[in-house]
Amino acid sequence: MLTLFVRFAVIALIGYVLWRIFRPRHGARIVIDQHGVKHHEGLPRSHRREILEFMDELPPLDGTLTVCAQREPNGYLRLDFRGRVDPGTRQQIRNFLNTVM
Hints:
Blueprint: H1 2-22, E1 28-33, E2 36-41, H2 48-56, E3 65-71, E4 77-82, H3 87-100
Antiparallel strand pairs: 1-2, 1-3, 3-4
């Protein structure tokens, strides 16, 4: 009985590791703090400078803000915000990224 439990646990662990490796990740990620853009990855080359300039011009933030963007199969740009940001700034970022990406 114990060996059956161990087998299921190993299979579940392998499944979890494979899911973490192959799961869909964000297409683009931007990390912003009080001083501007701290880190970025996955931005389209053609719009990178424009996006970074826009993010640097945002009002000062409390702490760090991470914006993750993923293009859905139906063409919708899904944005995920992590960190403290007011709704107006969040909407401004959303509108800008929907326009350029």
